[in-house]
Amino acid sequence: MTSTHLYTLHDLIVRHWPHVVFVISVVSGAAAAIHAAMNKSDVRAAIAWVGVILMSPIFGPLLYLVAGINRVRRDRISQQRDSSLKDYTNQKAIPVADVAEDSGTQFMSMRTLGDRISGFPLLDDNHIRILNGGDEAYPAMLRAIRAARRTIGLQTYIFDDDRSGREFVDALAEAHARGVEIRVLIDAVGSKYSRPPIIRLLRKKGITAALFMTNPLGMKMPYANLRSHRKILIVDGRHGFTGGMNIREGFVSALAGRNVASDTHFQVEGPVVLQLTSVFAHDWEFTTHETLPYAVWCSDELKNVPQPSVPARCVRSGPDRFINSTHNMLLGAFAVAQRHIRIQSPYFLPDQILLGALNTAARRGIQVDVVIPGHNNLRLVDYAMTAQLDQIIRNGCRVWRASGNFNHSKLITIDGGWSYVGSSNMDPRSLRLNFELDIEVYSHELAAQIELMIDSEIERADPCSLAELAALPFRKRLRNKIIWLASPYL
User: Fold this and answer.
1) N or C of the chain: less Cβ packing under 10 Å?
2) Does the N-terminal peptide bond of residue 473 adopt cis geometry, omega within 30 degrees of 0?
3) What local confidence, expressed as pLDDT, does residue 68 receive?
4) Which parts of 258-340 fold into alpha helices (H)?
5) Range with the poorest average pLDDT among 51-60, 82-91, 303-312, 440-449
6) What pLDDT score does 16 carry?
7) One domain for residues 223 and 350
8) Is 7 domain-assigned?
């Protein structure tokens, strides 16, 4: 091309750049709007994205490209889970048939619902122990790692490079030196909570580690979508740990002092450990394309667990074929409640369907107690929560703001017989965008322990009233409502 032609092209662009920008914005905006309309299953999400795209023809499509597209292909995940990892679902344990004795007759329908939603059978002979905070959870997890003989699988959202994180790295390195096969999976967004990210130290120690859903553009996006929020530790295919706790020194009283945060984790033994291993193996293969052999990573020594034993199963949720799992489980649980619903959640932002289910339960005469932190670690989430609390308080639900330090626990019990615990918050991110893992447990004993924990929080909590919400200055109420509009992406 001659210099004359180059000059002509440059001159053309300079002269007509507004028209070029207009054409690009129209084409990109139309493509993004069509993609949102055709691929979003929630009509509100589709309308919101189309509105953003049309109102901002250039920025809108870019934002949708980064935050609006689900890049996890459901069909591809389904093929992986239905082919290379079949062994993990061929469990030898006999599914539980009757949960009436363990929980109550109203929960028979919950067992059926779980069968159709979770993909895992409800299995008996599980022992589940509650671990309060890092002071109980971390020593138990470290003991299991230090006693490992064959395999260790660790998956977490946040794994900080701090004193607690380095203690875990040292224990993993010692196990690696003994010949234990180790895999560590950390969420790509969660890994950015500390600098430098601890994955560098893990790899330096020779430990096989990977980041879940790395951003191909290398962009730093603290609110990036599609995170793995699951917390799993499996040792020798026999000992499992799961719940809501990340690995960071803020949960250890000796390190955090008076600012120590609370959380609840669970130590699991029995057949449900195989389900934990299955979830970890699926996520590891999706991330690294490495299949973890069943014969190596699972154990047949899942019987003779400590007593009491309880029926339990894992429930996966995420932006794949399990996208509505937890949402549907909670709807079912609120519908069968006959006496009391207890919820403790650090981030309580249920959608209108769940709000309606809670309000309906309260109108039926069910006592509904919701415990949220008095001081939240995420101010924007706290503003959004406050903006919609009136929607359940006016219908008879009781909301309590806990006193003391921040509590990160995610706990639900129904009628003292059914519990739902794990990594899921009751907010749009957990219910639709994050990959989460929870356990439903049919047990009067475990429910009683969790009820005691929630009730002790209520005893020290301040009730939230409509009068208190109305007394907030207008500027704060307006701020809360504006932040609430963005709640699906907080």
Assistant:
1) N
2) no
3) 64
4) 272-288, 294-297, 325-336
5) 82-91
6) 63
7) no
8) yes
Q: Coil, strand, or helix at residue 222?
A: coil
Through-space distance between the first and last CA atoms of the chain, rounded to whole angstroms: 51
Q: List, in order, residues 6 or more apart from 124 with CB less than 8 Å away.
A: 93, 94, 96, 271, 309, 310, 311
In a domain, 99, yes or no: no
For residue 222, the model assigns a pLDDT of 42
Report how far apart, in Å, the C-alpha atoms of 116 and of each of 182, 225, 427 are.
33, 27, 23
* Sequence letter at residue 402: A
Tell me, yes or no, whether 43 and 80 share the same domain.
no
Gyration radius of the chain over CA positions: 24
Which one, of 484, 175, 130, 113, lies nearest residue 327 by Cα?
Answer: 113
pTM for the structure as a whole: 0.86
C-alpha dihedral over 330, 335, 339, 345, to 10 degrees?
A: 20
At position 394, the amino acid (one-letter code) is R
Q: Which of 381, 423, 142, 375 is nearest to 259 (CA)?
A: 375
**Phi then psi dihedrals of residue 265, to 5 deg:** -125, 170
Residue 233 pairs with which residues in a beta bridge? Answer: 154, 241
Q: 293 CB contacts (<8 Å, ≥6 apart)?
A: none
Q: What is the mean pLDDT of residues 433-449?
A: 96
Task: Give the CA dihedral 196, 202, 205, 206, nearest 10 degrees.
Answer: -130
**Domain of 479: which CATH number?**
3.30.870.10
Residue 61 — φ and ψ, nearest 5°? -60, -35
Domain stops at, among 249, 281, 308: 308
Identify the sign of the CA torsion 402, 361, 328, 333.
positive
Number of domains comprising the chain: 3
SS3 313: strand
Per the structure, the complete domain to which residue 35 belongs is given by 3-68
Specify the pLDDT at position 78. Answer: 44
Do 227 and 342 reside in the same domain of the chain? no
Q: Residue 143 has which token pair? A: 């003991």
357 & 287 share domain: no
Give the separation between CA 100 and CA 413, rounded to whole angstroms: 16
Number of Cβ within a 10 Å radius of residue 6 = 10
Q: What is the β-pairing status of strands 239-243 and 264-269?
A: antiparallel
In a domain, 86, yes or no: yes
Q: What is the mean pLDDT of the chain?
A: 87
Within this chain, do residues 399 and 367 fall inside the same structural domain, yes or no?
Answer: yes
The string of pLDDT tens digits covering residues 36-89 is: 777 766 666 677 777 777 777 777 777 777 666 665 544 444 444 444 455 555
Task: Answer yes or no: do 294 and 361 share one domain.
Answer: no
- In this prediction, residues 166-186 reach a mean pLDDT of 98
From the centroid of its chain, how far is CA 173?
A: 28
